[in-house]
Design brief:
Elements lengths: L1 E4 L2 E4 L8 E4 L2 E4 L8 E11 L2 E13 L2 E16 L5 E11 L4 E12 L2 E11 L5 E3 L11 E3 L5
Antiparallel strand pairs: 1-4, 2-3, 3-5, 4-5, 5-6, 6-7, 7-8, 8-9, 9-10, 10-11, 10-12
């Protein structure tokens, strides 16, 4: 097991796209076990291509040495993607699926794209296509999604 401060880890993604860069104030990782999770704490930032996630802590989920997901938690977690269009979001939690190139934002979500604003408890966003699914997983829970749309676009 390796424990390090001001640790940076670079990992090539399974789909051959841009590298994943993680920076945090401290990290805990077992580099010998290909199925072990890595934990990052304190001002953690993940960068991949035009996407950036910042959070208080992140857990990197690995299977057979490949990064399959990153779970970010904080108050709040911030997401930013600059290409092809600027998208920013904040929420309590974010799960980034490296395989599917999707992020699931949950807990007090606010997503901004152009002049549009979407608020709710859960939004799934496809990083590749820019498509999103907003809403709860169950209509019975009473959660609502609010869209404030800019009709000038």
């Amino acid at each position: 097991m390796i424990v390090a401060a001001s640790h940076v880890i670079l990992a090539q993604a399974t789909d051959g796209e841009a590298q994943i860069r993680l920076v945090g104030n401290s990290a805990q990782a077992n580099l010998e076990d290909p199925d072990s999770d890595w934990s990052f704490y304190g001002d953690v930032q993940l960068e991949r291509g035009s996407m950036t996630l910042t959070a208080d802590r992140m857990t990197v989920k690995r299977t057979a040495g490949d990064i399959v997901a990153v779970i970010a938690e904080g108050a709040p977690v911030r997401f930013k993607q600059t290409m092809p269009n600027l998208v920013t979001a904040s929420s309590s939690n974010v799960t980034y699926s490296v395989e599917n190139q999707t992020i699931v934002l949950s807990g007090d979500v606010v997503l901004l794209q152009g002049g549009n604003e979407i608020r709710g408890e859960r939004i799934e966003y496809d990083v590749s296509s820019g498509e999103l699914i907003a809403g709860s997983t169950s209509p019975a829970d009473g959660q609502q999604i609010e869209f404030v749309l800019d009709d000038e676009e």
